[in-house]
Amino acid sequence: MQRLNGSDHGAFLPAVATDIRPIRQLVKARDVAKKLGGAAFHGLSKHASGKRKPYLPAVKMGPGRNPLRFDPNDVEKFIDECRRIAGQRAGYASR
Q1: Domains of the chain: total
Q2: Structure confidence by residue, pLDDT tens digits, 10-48
Q3: Does residue 47 sit within a domain?
Q4: First to last CA, the chain
Q5: Is the pLDDT of residue 90 over 80?
Q6: Distance CA 18, CA 57 (A)
Q7: For residue 62, is it within any domain?
Q8: Could you tell me the residue range of the domain that residue 37 belongs to?
Q9: What is the reported pTM?
Q10: N or C: which end of the chain has fewer CB within 10 A?
C-alpha cells in the first residue's frame, strides 16, 4: 500500500494497476496545413466536421479563432486515406 501524498497521517491507498498511456501532443491546424503542403485551414475544418471526406478527427480546445487540434497519428491516417482515394480515382480515370 502507498501513503497518500507521502504523508504520515495513516491514510493508505490500495496499490491499483492502472493502464497509463503517454500523453500525445496535439498539433494546431496551421501545422497540419503545412504538412499537407499548404492546404487551406477552411478545408481542414470541413474534413474535421465530417462535411468532406475523408474524415479527419479533431479536438476542439475552447473558443477562439483556431480552436481545433489534431492528433499526429490521425493526420497520418488521413494522409494515407487521401492517397488511397487518389489512387482509386487515378485508376478510374485511366479506364
Answers
A1: 1
A2: 556 566 666 777 778 999 999 999 998 887 778 898 999
A3: yes
A4: 69
A5: no
A6: 26
A7: yes
A8: 20-93
A9: 0.68
A10: C
